[in-house]
Amino acid sequence: VYTILKRVHIPPRLHWQLARLYNTHFLLGVAGIITNEAGELLLFRHTYRNRHPWGTPGGWMERSESPLAALEREVYEESALIIKAERMLLLGTTPDRPKLEFVVGGRVVGGDFRPSREVSEYGWFARDKLPPLAAFHHHILRTLDATPPGELGWYEAPWLIAHPD
Q: For the chain, how far is it from start to end, CA to CA, in angstroms?
């Protein structure tokens, strides 16, 4: 059922209501904080997001998959970029969605970008020149900035939080 929900474009609120009805347990997701030598952040323009299409790479974990392996697979599937996922940065929940998310840091090690059904383009952005992002992404970046280096941070934030974009 979730595979069908992922392929059919329906309003996000309805999508998550159906996902919650189908699965009473948390879904496990990954988000990537992929940076280059200049400290720029890799962002994808997602085809299924209307208001704020740019966001961090990521997706859902599959059975028997680690968060690091899941991010490497998702980035490759969505873009043909090859990344090396290096470490866990944050762990968090989104109370308005049945989701536990692992935020993983990494870097690109190869591949040539190829658009997919989910990602139309990519870009490297300085933190002070980010395109409009969903408030949730801003919350993750602020939490990451407040987490001491080398420590695993934690956040709890609804997807639909106010942000002055």
A: 34
Torsion of CA 57, 147, 35, 56, to 10 degrees: 20
The model carries a pTM of: 0.81
User: For the segment 94-153, what is each residue's pLDDT rounded down to a tens digit?
Assistant: 777 778 899 999 999 999 999 999 999 999 999 999 999 988 888 999 999 999 999 999
CB 13 within 8 A of CB 42: no
Strands 58-60 and 54-55: unpaired
DSSP label at residue 50: S
Q: Kind and range of the H or E element at 107?
A: strand 99-110
Question: How deeply is 36 buried, as exposed, middle or buried, from its count of CB atoms within 10 A (0-12, 13-18, 19+)?
Answer: exposed
87: exposed, middle or buried (Cβ count in 10 Å: 0-12, 13-18, 19+): exposed
Instruction: State the amino acid at position 131 in one-letter form.
Output: P
